[in-house]
Structures are given as C-alpha cells and as structure tokens.
Amino acid sequence: MGLNQSVPFEDVDLLASDPALREALEREGAGWARERVWEAGVVAASAEAQAHSRRAERNEPRLVTHDRFGDRVDGVELDPSWYWLLDGAVERGIASAPWADPRPGAHVARAALELMWTHANAGVMCPVSMTYSAVPALRMDPAIAAEWEPRLRDGALCGMAMTEKQGGSDVRANTTVAAPVGDGWFELTGHKWFCSYPPCDAFLVLAQAPAGLSCFVLERGPGMEFQRLKNKLGTRSLPSSEVELRAAPARLLGGEGRGVATIIEMVTHTRLDCVVGSAASMRRGVAEAIWHARHRSAFGARLIDQPAMVNVLADLALESEAATATALRLARAYDEGDHALRRFATAISKYWVCKRATAHAAEALECLGGNGYVEESPMPRLLRDAPLNGIWEGSGNVIALDVLRALSREPDGLAAFVAECELARGENALLDHALATLPRSLDPWTARRGVEELALAFQASLLVRFAPESVADAFCAARLGGGGRVYGTLPSGVDGSAIVARALEL
Questions:
Q1: Domain identity same for 289 and 224
Q2: Which of 242, 258, 274 is the last residue of a domain?
Q3: Which candidate, 393, 376, 437, places its Cα nearest to that of 263?
Q4: pLDDT tens for each residue of 236-288
C-alpha cells in the first residue's frame, strides 16, 4: 500500500491456512466433512461476511414490547445482517447436523464448522449452540422430542431461561413457580434474569414445581413478557433478555423435581461449545496478529522478522493450536458416547481454555498496536466477546468446584481422563513429570490450581502425540517447565519461526 499499513484479513481460505484444524479434523474422524468445513471458512472470511458482522454489531437489537395500539408484541428488531449470519450457521447444520445425520465424526465436523463460522460472528453462535445442545435434554421425553426435533432440524431455534436475580449460577435458589394444570402441563410464574435468545421458538426453563426444581419446555407465546435487552460488554449483535413469566403454559420435561438432572445434558453440550468458541476466538486473534506482522514494518524490519515479536506470535500460536486440538478431541468423545471422558474433560477444558481466551485476545490486539485498539479493527470486538464463554454455563469457581465434585462422585471420569493423557507417556520428560504429579483429589482452596494442572496435561498430551516436535516441545517447555507469566516469554531454543509459519499457512 506504500504507507506501511496492513490490509484486512478477509477473502482468505481459513481451512487452508490452519494445518492444526485440518489435521484434527482427519484425526478425530471427520475427514469426510472437509469440503463442508472449507466452504464455511471461505464464506465466513469473505469481505461480505465481515461487512455483515460489522453491520450487525453496529446496529444493535431493539426490543419492541408493544404495538401502536398498546397491545403486547414482545418482539425484537434485528438488522438484516444478523439474519444473514444466523441463517448461514443454521443452513450449514451447526444447530442440528449431528442429530439429523449421526454418522461417525458428526460432532467433530460440527465443531469444525462452528470454528469456521465464528470467524463471521460470535453472537449468532449462542442460539445455534443452545439449539444443538437442547436435543439431548428433549430426548428425556420421547413424545416431546418427536415433536420438537423435526422442527429444530427445519430451522426452529431453542433457547434457555434458567438464571434468576437472587441465584445466578445457583439455580436451585430459583423462585419461579410451576403450577400444575394437568396432563403434564404447568403454568410458570416468575422472573428470569437471563433469557437467550428472545426470538427463539422454544425455551428450556427451570422452575419450582410441587416436587421440587423441574425442567420445562416453554413455547414462545402468551405469558412471556420481555422486560429489556441486556446492555452487555460483548456479543452486542446478540439480543439477550430479561423476561417476566405470567402463567406461561409449559410442558414438564423429565421427572418432576429432576430439573438439574434433566438439563445437565444440555449444559454439557453447551460447555463443549464454550471450548469450541474460545478456540475460535484464539484462532482469529493469532491469525490477525500474524497477518498484521507480515504486512507491517518497524525499526527497519518487518514485524514478522523481529525476534521479540516472533516470541509473542509463537506463544499465541501454541495456545491456539492446543485449544483447537482440545476442542476436536472433546467433540470425538461426544461422537463415541464416551460419557466418562467427556463429562470430566469437558469441565476441565471449559475452565482452562475459556480462561485463556481473554488474555489471548488482549495480547493479539497489542500486536496490532494502535491499529488494533480502534473500533474499525476487529480486535476490540474480539476482546469484548472473549470473556463470555468463561462466564456462560458456569464461571471459573463454579466449574472448578464441579470438577471437585466429579472427582469424588464419578471416579471413572478421572480414570478415563488420566488414561487419555497417559497415551503420551515417554515422549516428553516434562510431560512425564506432570503426569506423575497430577492431582487426584482437590479441595475448594486448591480446586482452580488443580484443574489448571489437569488441563495442561491434557493439552500437552495431545500436542506431544500429534503436533510437530517444534510445537509440542515449546508448549511443554512454556506451560510445564516453569515458563513466563505472560505471552511472549518462550524460552531460548524454541523454533518460533517454524511455529509461526505453521500457524498461518498463507
């Protein structure tokens, strides 16, 4: 361009640029979906998709509670670009494909598609993820599943309304009341602090029935009065709402008093998507940073040729590749029905990968300097969106304590998790030491540190087994060998240039 400026990271081939994703797609059993994933990446990275994303973020949703005659309509006005982005995700099967076509590798293929389409917009992935995750819960009642699964496959969307003002993550403190009216139907009355996404066709709702906290299927309609849209830090294109339920008719799902047990399958699948979404965030951040460094010079040389910058970029690339490998390995556990591994590994990975995403986005933004800080850049949106997955479906303490409970209640989960990590024993001395000292019990004070150690062992084992030696050795040295406390502190001897070249093959 002649003025030492970069160019937009648009109209690029996302799959061709990402060997870690290509390899994981094949390794985890979804090589048959490569063309679909490639197509999704090409469209998501197109200048057209990026323009739609900017427009959807700029023209934020607006709640319309009443029409001009004073009658309630409880609608949401959304920019046409939002629907372009949402329809693109639904049409590619990200909301339902594994249930419509449950072939081997279907969940892995869907995770890869989600990784691609999140490059277009992270906000639309919320209703898409909830719809995907609702199906296992709906199957608790064959009659309800028979009604709703075909609708969800045809484009209907399912949301959730679980948290309340006084409880938050402590859903057992919910005060919404479910009054029985006969034949499995109840009327729900109460206030939900978060209800996403309001235009959904149905919602899974927790409420207090006579026998205790229960789960219900609530079809959007009479009795749902939306109070306001949340003014959120990020995912501004996505309308999240607060809703008042006034004798809203709903059907019991699962046993009365078994609300948490019923909803847990939905929660587990949405936690998988939290990992996938954070991996997508990291991938976008490191790609933008490397792209910028290849196009800009400072102090007499391109940024990509300067050792200090290479150290940062390589460190970001290690984190991104580890997250991608983790996300797709988890997805394979869902394909294989490996309940012990998926329950334990999903919680651990949700905690760690989502925690790393915000710092990763901040460091990637810093690589672009002032060009990354201005709102015309995609980096501020990336940074604003990054904390969401760490909060959704359980913030850090909730997840760490969940792992603590699983250690005592589900010993098969820890055994399956350790067995997976042990597949890499003998290939790296630092990993071997980490495996020998893995925590086998936790208490509330040490839970977060213990989960971190388990997560790092899991990621290191995947990279040692499947990534190039330059990547695996650098990751173990930096994450298991007492490395620095911020990105860009890789030890001497790391082949940073090789890691960076692999991270963006364009």
A1: no
A2: 258
A3: 393
A4: 999 999 999 999 999 999 999 999 999 998 999 999 999 999 999 999 999 99
In 465-504, which positions are buried (b, 16+ CB within 10 angstroms) versus exposed (e)?
ebbbebbbbbbbbbbbbebeeebbebeeebbbeebbbbbb
Same domain, 386 and 314: yes
Side chain identity, residue 161: A
Q: What is the CATH number of the domain that holds 429?
A: 1.20.140.10
> Which amino acid, one-letter code, is at 30?
A
Surface-to-core class of residue 5, CB atoms within 10 Å of its CB (0-12 exposed, 13-18 middle, 19+ buried): exposed
Kindly state whether residues 209 and 350 are assigned to the same domain: no
- What pLDDT is recorded for position 371? 94
Residue 451 falls inside a structural domain:
yes
Consecutive H or E run containing 439? none
Give the tens place of pLDDT for each residue, 16-70: 999 999 999 999 999 999 999 999 999 999 999 999 999 999 999 999 999 999 9
Question: Which residue in 309, 302, 272, 1 sits closest to 132, CA to CA?
Answer: 272
Domain extent at residue 185: 158-258
